[in-house]
Amino acid sequence: MKQLSCDLLVVGGGVAGVCAAIAASRSGVRTILVERYGYLAGTGYAGMLQHICGLYLNGESFPVETLNGGLTQEIVGLLKNKAPKKSVQQIGQVYVLPYCAGDLQNVFKDLLDAENSLTILRNTAATAIVAGYGNTWNVTLEASGETRNIAATMVVDCTGDGDVAAMAGAAFELSPVDERQLAGFSIRVSGLESRDDSLAIKVPYYCTQAVERNILPAFMKFTTFSFGESPDECFIKMSREGKNAPDRDERALADAQALFAYLGQVLPSFRQAVITGTSQKVMDREGRRIGGDYLLTEDDILAARKFPDAIARNAWPIELWDRARGTLYKYVPRGEYYEIPFRCITVKGMTNLLTAGRCISVSHAALGSTRVMGTCMALGEQAGRAGACFIRTGNFQFAAGDNHEYFRHN
Ligand SMILES: Cc1cc2nc3c(=O)[nH]c(=O)nc-3n(C[C@H](O)[C@H](O)[C@H](O)COP(=O)(O)OP(=O)(O)OC[C@H]3O[C@@H](n4cnc5c(N)ncnc54)[C@H](O)[C@@H]3O)c2cc1C
């Protein structure tokens, strides 16, 4: 079996993992990033999303600065260079950055290519992890039928679902399927006859009708509609069961086609339209939440709580995609933000394993806020920096009380 070694292994090349890998490499430690698929940015690429959330304060005035500095701010700047016309937008009570998934891929590629201490293994999945000799991990990687073993001093789990930490024996919470947030599957449609703003109401309305007539499955009553970049283009986001059934991607695609055919019958705007893209797979909003040394709660978020070991700021509301009622929002007080402590990315009882992104130590409700991309990027960067700090010094420098200055950018 082929053997590899590195100081820091990042598993998962979503927005959190890419930021963790860049930050670790910039800190000078030998870093490997492994990603199961051929693309980077995870849900941020494969989900056909249009906005990066969690970047800004929701105050009275239009935000100029991102809430988190460092890499998050840098990525936003690079995205703006690629698409100067895409500027901050207000949607209801929040501010978001429109983006194009291709631009995000290119920004990540440029940043990753600039790193000398970093190796990226695409189409490679981590399938097992065991404690190795001394304070190391042995991680098994599978790629196109080939198995490799990698020895790493520090592992950062950025798999979204906490795959690696769970395999390592970490405690985790996973909401029962009937309480879990709904997953999503998007389709992009081109060739709408005309830009009719009422489609944002009509499409969800007709989806509800189709569900009531048993043409479409139940959760599709929570379908949303938004226009794309050109006036004849739109995105339709379908809600799906948050359960990983073997055929769920095929079923989502079949339902997308049924929905599209139905819209063609009831809405003249869709008669000449075609489906020009879909999500790569059904995308989960909620999976395992790995148990850390602190569990961030709804109360922390709504009270805009601050922490001495804070590593990231967020003002995104608790946005829950509820199975019975659709999207529910609970807002951070206007103009305020809460902080995420370092203890949310540690793994209880394990020193050389960190988490970042969607799978950190938060409650079911708190995840509704922390899971957005802007926050996942900041968490990824901090996990990469903290991991590198551990490799260099043997600790996270918290005992010395200088964590605040070390991890904070602001
Ligand atoms: C339907 C939907 C709509 C959303 N809309 C928005 C939005 O509009 N704006 C916003 O900001 N956020 C949105 N989000 C949330 C956001 O996109 C995600 O929570 C965020 O991107 C998660 O980033 P991540 O890096 O933690 O995980 P992921 O994006 O899930 O990335 C994890 C990566 O790890 C890889 N991986 C997993 N297991 C392994 C393994 N064993 N070995 C190797 N690789 C592995 C996966 O292939 C994946 O690429 C949405 C989420 C969903 C599901």
What are its keywords?
410 residues, alpha+beta, FAD/NAD(P)-binding domain, Alpha-Beta Plaits, 8-stranded mixed β-sheet, 4-stranded antiparallel β-sheet, 11 helices, 21 strands, 27% strand, globular, disordered C terminus, binds flavin-adenine dinucleotide
Straight-line distance between termini: 45 Å
- Which fold name is given in CATH as the topology of the largest domain? FAD/NAD(P)-binding domain
Q: How large a portion of the residues is in β-strands, by DSSP E?
A: 25-35%
Q: Structural class of the helix and strand makeup?
A: alpha+beta
**Integer-rounded radius of gyration:** 21 Å
**How many strands in all?**
21
At the first level of CATH, the class of the largest domain is: Alpha Beta
Shape: globular
| CATH architecture annotation name of the largest domain | 3-Layer(bba) Sandwich
What binds here, in terms of ligands, is: flavin-adenine dinucleotide
The tally of structural domains comes to: 2
- Tell me roughly what share of residues is in helical segments: 25-40%
Please describe the biggest sheet, giving its number of strands, its sense, and whether it closes into a barrel.
8 strands, mixed
Poorly predicted regions? 399-410
